[in-house]
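Session log. Operator J.P. requested a structure for one protein chain; no other inputs attached. Running the standard single-chain path with C-alpha cell output.
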Amino acid sequence: MSVLDLARPEIRTLQPYSSARMEAGGGQIMLNANESAWAPHGDGGLGCHRYPEPQPAALLQTLAALYGVREEQLFVGRGSDEAIDLLVRAFCQAGEDAVLIQPPTFGMYAVSARIQNAAIIEVPLAGDFSLDAPALLAAVTPAVKLVFLCTPNNPSGQSIAHEEIERVAQTLAGKALLVVDEAYVEFSTQGSVADLIDRYEHLAVLRTLSKAWALAGARIGSLLANPQVIALVRRIMPPYPLPLPCVAAAMAELSPSGQAEAREHIAIVREQRALMQAALGQLPGVLEVLPSDANFLAVRFDDAGTVYQRLLQAEIVVRDIRRYPHLQNALRITIGTPKENAQVLAVLNEGRA
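Structure written below.
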C-alpha cells in the first residue's frame, strides 16, 4: 500500500495551478506575469515587483542540509501552520475522515481539522504528560488519516522518546500518516526523527524557523516527508507562498554567522531554562514547574489568575494555559533574555513579600 492511498483521490489527480514563475523562471524582459515593471520605493534590490519562486532553490538547498533530508523531501511554506492545513486538506475528506490528537497540545491541528470539517479524535496525554501509545493506537479507526504528535510538546514542554515514536510509526503503517511536530526540537537534547523518513513512507516531520532561529515574524516553516507526500502538498499550495523579504531573512539567519549566533542563543535558553526552573520551584505559591525540553516552562500556581494579572501589571505577558487538560492552574512562561527572566522572578518575589 502506498502512502498516497491514504490521500484524497481527487487531490491525487488534481491538475495544480501553473504559475507564471513556474512556466518561465527567468529572462531579460519579464512580461508573462502582469507584474509592475518598476521596483517599489525602498525595495533595496530585493525585486519585490516580481513574484517569488514558489519553492526557492537556495532556501530549499539550505534547509535540506540543515534538516538532513533531500530537497525532494522538503516543502517550505508560511510557518508550520500552512503545512498542517495543507496536510489536512490533502488527506481528509470533509465530513468523512478524521485526525487524531493528544491534548493538551498545539491548537492548530484541531483548528485545521474543523475548517476542513474533519472529525477530531482526542486521546489525552497521561497525567504526567507522557504519550499513552496503547490508547492512541487503540483509537485509530479507518477514518483516521492523520495522527499528530508534538515533541517537545506545546504547552507541557515534554518530549517523546524516539523509540516510542518509531513504535507508533511501525503500527500505523498502511493506516495513517504520522505527523511529528518538532517546532521546539532545537532546545531539546533529543534530536529529530527526520532520519526515519526513508524507513517509513507514512512519516512526516514539521520544522520551523520561528523559535530557535528567531524568525517568527518571517513565517518560514517546513514539512519533511516522503517525496510523494511533498509532491502532493505542492499540488495544493498557494502559487507564491514565500514572500521575498521573508526568504531573504531566512537566508541571512541560516548563513554561517547567523547559525553560529543562533546556536549561542539556544545555549543561553537551555542554561536559563534550568536556572528558571530551579528559581521558580523555590517560590511560595508555585506548586510545580513541569520539566521542559522547549524554550518555555509550564508552571502550576496556587492562584494562577492572580499571578497572571500581577505580571501583566508589570508589563510582562505570559500565556494563560488553564483551559488545557491537566493544566487548570498553570501558566506558560517563555524563556527570555537573562534580564527579562530576572524581572519575572523579581515581580513574583515582590508579590509574595
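Operator note: Residues 258-351 form a domain with the Aspartate Aminotransferase, domain 1 fold (CATH 3.90.1150.10).
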